[in-house]
Amino acid sequence: MIPYSFLDLANVTEGSTIPETFTKSAALAQSAESSGYTRYWFAEHHNMQSVASSATSVLIGYIAGKTNTIRVGSGGVMLPNHSPLVIAEHFGTLASLYPDRIDLGLGRAPGTDQATAQALNANFFENVHNFPKNIVLLQQYFSEENRRANVRAFPGEGLDIPLWILGSSTDSAYLSSSYGLPYAFASHFAPAQMAKAFEIYHSNFKPSKQLQSPYIMSCVNVIIADTLEEAQRLATSFYRMFLGIIRNERKLLQPPIDTMDDVWNVNEEAYVRQMTSCAFIGTKETVKREISLFIERYRLNEIMITSPIYDQEARLYSTRMFAEIMKELA
User: Fold this and answer.
1) Containing H/E element for 323?
2) Is the residue at 248 inside a domain?
3) Which helix (H) or strand (E) holds 78?
4) What is the C-alpha separation between 106 and 184, in angstroms, rounded?
5) CA-CA distance, 325 to 330, in Å (whole number)?
6) Which tens digit of pLDDT belongs to each residue from 69-104?
7) Span 191-218, average pLDDT
8) Which pLDDT tens digit goes with each residue over 171-194?
């Protein structure tokens, strides 16, 4: 059995509040922990009323405090938005509070629009160019050797905090392989270059102090229900979320509807389905068959799921069923 993990976007649902969203995330993380999930990650996004994970490190600390054993981390922190020293201190603090439980996944994108990226950090575009150098700087802050430097991270220095590179293109594959870091691909919204990126990563991997052999993880969408019809109905919330991205109509996560036929046009449907081609929607039996083939085809070392489901109980059920699938595949 390969490890299985969960990505939470802290989606705010229609009719709910941000505090209620965080309470739901805590309940979901506790359920994931009891179901054997390895990691529970949050993704940094900004200027999106439907996504409440902007202060990613704060939310990681909240969830780590509500759980006991599951690893909690970022999927990811968008490093160009921040000073590497600040991230070293934040995650050093988290790792000091919750030893051997904190992951630091790093991305190059802003997780928002360009105007907001500039508001977050006036040097954003320069930082994008310096992303590889800033990863090395972050590693330096965590190293014991940095004790002789003029600038040091407290907490952070000397702590073993696993770094991951996140990506949705082949650029990230070259970077993570050259640095010898584990690689997580955002297949849940940008699957087009996944196969090529994994091929590049495997072909160019160089062992490092952190990792001796290649390690890849794919994040996919999973919605499981008792019947195919119910799963497809639950998925309409997920499809409308992506449709909102295309139309630039950012709304809270909407309740499911019976059909999408009158909601999108032919071109919009094709585009949404291309963006969400790594989605496994159906009963436990159908998802088990499809996910098994997917894992084997791409030689995954780990799989991460996200489940943009409106109803909390349906979301909890889906994540429990996926855990059962992974245990049965062992």
Assistant:
1) helix 312-329
2) no
3) strand 71-78
4) 10
5) 9
6) 999 999 999 999 999 999 999 999 999 999 999 999
7) 97
8) 999 999 999 999 999 999 999 999
Q: How far apart are CA 60 and CA 53, in angstroms?
A: 9
Phi, psi of 256 (to 5 degrees): -70, 155
The whole-angstrom separation of Cα 292 and Cα 48 is: 34
Residue 265 lies in a domain: no
Domain total of the chain: 1
Beta strand residue intervals within 150-193, DSSP E: 163-167, 183-185
- Answer yes or no: is 81 within a domain: yes
Label residue 137 by pLDDT band (50, 70, 90): very high
DSSP for 230-269?
HHHHHHHHHHHHHHHHHHT---PBPPP-S-STTTS-HHHH
Give every CB contact of residue 171 below 8 A, 6+ residues apart in sequence: 108
Buried b (16+ CB within 10 A) or exposed e, 142-161: bbeebeeeeebbebbbebeb
* 252 within some domain: no
Q: In whole angstroms, what is the distance from residue 238 CA to residue 256 CA?
A: 8
**Can you give the pLDDT at residue 1?**
83
The phi and psi torsions of 16 (rounded to 5 degrees) equal -115, 175
Task: Say if pTM beats, i.e. exceeds, 0.90.
Answer: yes
> Do strands 71-78 and 39-42 pair parallel, antiparallel, or not at all (unpaired)?
parallel
Residues 6+ apart with CB under 8 A from 175: 131, 132, 135, 165, 167
Residue 51 DSSP symbol: B
Give the structural domain span for 51: 4-222+280-329
